[in-house]
Design brief:
- The structure is a homotrimer.
- Chain A is α+β, with helices and mostly antiparallel strands.
- The first copy, chain A, folds into 2 domains: 4-163, S-adenosyl-l-methionine hydroxide adenosyltransferase, N-terminal (Rossmann fold, 3-Layer(aba) Sandwich); 173-279, Elongation Factor Tu (Ef-tu), domain 3.
- Helix content of chain A is 19%, strand content 32%.
- In chain A, strands 8, 9, 10, 11, 12, 13, 14 and 15 form an 8-stranded antiparallel beta sheet that branches. A 7-stranded mixed beta sheet of chain A has the order 2-1-3-5-4-6-7.
- In chain A, helix 1 runs parallel beside helix 4.
- The longest helix of chain A is centred in the middle third of the chain and has 15 residues, at 133-147.
- Chain A starts with a strand and ends with a strand.
- The mean pLDDT of chain A is 94.
- Chain B binds chain C through residues 1-2, 4, 6, 8, 33, 35-40, 51-52, 55-57, 59-61, 64, 185, 187-189, 199-200, 233-234, 236, 247, 249-251, and chain C through 11-24, 26-27, 30-31, 33-34, 36, 43, 75-76, 126-128, 130-132, 135.
């Protein structure tokens, strides 16, 4: 396969960090093709980093190497690692929760801690040690791997996959009353919220297109939304500014405010503190 | 020529849609070079999608394949198509008005509806049909075309170019009083407005550099701007915050507020409802 | 080395300018790989353009050609040039201050004015001369250089490096009281400010990790900040919203407001009018 690296970070393009990191990659091997997944992960949001990897990873060719740098713990004891996934990819990332969803939905087969004595860029003019790990550690190590200078075994010592840091995920569950799960992520362009409840489970629980479904949203112990809303296959079927349930692009249930922003207008978010329940009555 | 695809969408980089779409392209053929024209077309704005294609398309090598996904009608009966242009390019796009300007200024030679039975990605794990056409239909079909897996004839059945959906464009016209046209687009960074009146027609109508020109702007039937303003070749020649006429980068007449934002400060926009008249007196 | 060009501009992706410029490059030679450093340099800010080049340039392979288009003076008499740097790179740019930092920190070896009769794109359908130099002049000339159609000697006539336009930089200096310098740039994502005082000089002046350091900031003749603040190696060591000194990713001293935005909350900026003094007492 072509030598290539796919990057996601929270750096933005507002300063020179992306360009410096990409330069290091090209200095290792100018044949490596650099592909930008995004540099707009919300700042320090390792949950989003984790979710986005899961959203797109398995659309890529087997063997693709991903570099994810959302790293609030740079300079702390969090490990810098390369994970090998069960479905055949490599992810170069701080081990800080960024592997949560890929581990949960596809599985991590093995993981290795990057050996900084070998796979970190040390420049002569650096009197002191820089802490820009995206450039000097993750980008550099990934480039060596993509270039074939090292293979996976030479990233550094393997450690047990059970040690990988994971964010808690509340699994969806069917109850007598209906089905419940969590908000895994939002669609930042429209303010829609995506649950972790698969369409198949939702249908199996007995819900049908066109149903009015009693929907309760908890934030911690508080009920922050409690209303009957329809399940439709098209936003055009519900009135403007009404809230509806739909099947999203990865076949899980989503909630949307038609021609509106559900997150903003109802002060809702995603992550472990949100629980959503669809009830039969 | 090198295998390559040029993408424009309204997806933004705020979530994983671009990365999933690009992954599908690389899975079809990892040798395809992916070039980002922009992912910041205003949401659902097929007029802007159409204009931007027209603005840059003929600076690319003949044979280049463009993918434009601004698709408010996803899930409706709008066709998914590949258009062959008179000037030698291919555009993979929903047929929803996104071809308006290229058709008007360069011409569409032929158009084919994408055969979804062949040129759409169907994944095993998709119990239900996903509606992310950017990834599964436009990106996938374009990649097959760029890779040479299919040629243009195998995109799907040809249909008549007269059936292509077009937004109405008011042609510029010379009158006894002067010349009139419409605002085709804005410059979002500065708030300037670009008319569809060519410099050549403007000069032929008798206007000259330095003239004070009676300029009237209609929004529907209402006059929303009525003033004598100068035609200059440099923003430095007019006082700050004054409005002036200039020749833009594609040699059509533009209006600008010097060190200001014309669109915002005068509540002006672009599209079919705006008409601009330059009068001799 | 692979044919490639690295671009930075203030165009944004909000309109079609980037795509038109990249199309010209590919029309010259479709084998040229195009890499986006950033298109989000603050509008017209040649100081930032200069700083960003300096921040990332020497992480790239020797021989890399950079194109920087931040060009408030387009249409004026500012020169369009290609500079050859002492450390082995080429920069295609308007000569408007964008070479300041690379010249200061790495050195410019030679510079040539682009010969527009040869190295500017003239299209048949251009009745009038377009003023989009990013596309027709800088992008086009850089592509010819990257493709090997011309070599550096054929860019145009050489002129003396002393004629290059430079922004004034106040050099850091050690005094009896401590050390002083300027704010060179900010970190736009967090509002931190970066001085031009190297860590080595700072340490040599006698400051140590953990010290409370009397810090005075001048804007012109006015004192706009005057306070004792700590020098730490981690943001976690200072209370939220407190201001601290740290060593940044290029080993110069920076100032940050912990979990806050120093630029905004203290109305501070960067550039020649700001002076910062670290005093022993």
């Amino acid at each position: 396969m072509k030598k290539m690296l796919v990057f996601q970070t929270d750096f933005t393009y507002k300063e020179g960090a992306v360009a410096a990191m990409y330069g290091v990659v090209k200095s290792v091997d100018s044949d490596i093709e650099i592909i930008t997944a995004t540099h707009e992960i919300p700042q320090y949001d390792t949950w989003s980093a984790s979710y986005r990897l899961y959203q797109y990873i398995d659309f890529w060719p087997k063997g693709t190497i991903f570099v994810s740098v959302v790293d609030p713990g740079v300079g702390t004891s969090r490990k810098a690692c390369v994970a090998e996934t069960e479905n055949g990819y490599y992810i170069v990332t701080p081990d800080n929760g960024s592997l949560t969803h890929v581990d949960r939905y596809f599985g991590i087969k093995t993981v290795r801690e990057i050996d900084e004595t070998v796979n970190r860029l040390h420049r002569e003019d650096n009197g002191a040690v820089s802490i820009f790990h995206g450039r000097d550690l993750f980008g550099y190590c990934a480039a060596r791997l993509a270039a074939g200078i090292i293979d996976y075994e030479h990233v550094g010592p393997e450690y047990d996959v059970s040690e990988i840091k994971r964010h808690p995920i509340m699994e969806p569950s069917v109850t007598e009353e209906g089905i419940e799960g969590m908000f895994e992520i939002n669609d930042p362009n429209f303010g829609n919220l995506w649950t972790n409840i698969p369409l198949t489970a939702f249908l199996k629980a007995g819900f049908k297109m066109g149903d009015m479904i009693h929907t309760v949203i908890y934030k911690g112990a508080d009920i922050v939304f409690d209303r009957k809303i329809p399940y439709f296959d098209s936003f055009g079927k519900a009135p403007d500014h009404s809230v509806m349930i739909y099947n999203n692009e990865i076949n899980k249930m989503g909630l949307a405010e038609v021609i509106g922003n559900l997150c903003e207008d109802y002060s809702l978010g995603y992550g472990e503190e949100y629980r959503v329940v669809f009830r039969h009555e």
